[in-house]
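Sorry, I am new here, but would you mind making up a protein's amino acid sequence and the tokens describing how it folds?
***
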Amino acid sequence: MKERHCNIVRKILDFYIDGFRNMTVGKTLWTIILLKLFIIFAVLKLFLFPDFLSSKSSTEEGKADYVRSELINRNK
């Protein structure tokens, strides 16, 4: 049973690997998709999500104290 399961998984992997290997236009499209994802997650993060805790404290302990106090105060 386990050998049959591995054989099916191997056939599926071979199918996808062969499909990606034989792509022509698809490779360009995947390159564009990956480039867009990089821009969204890496570049925009720098501008839209600043490091807020660094402005509150420079040490890890100070950041932890700030987060702890905010969690406690917001629950009141």
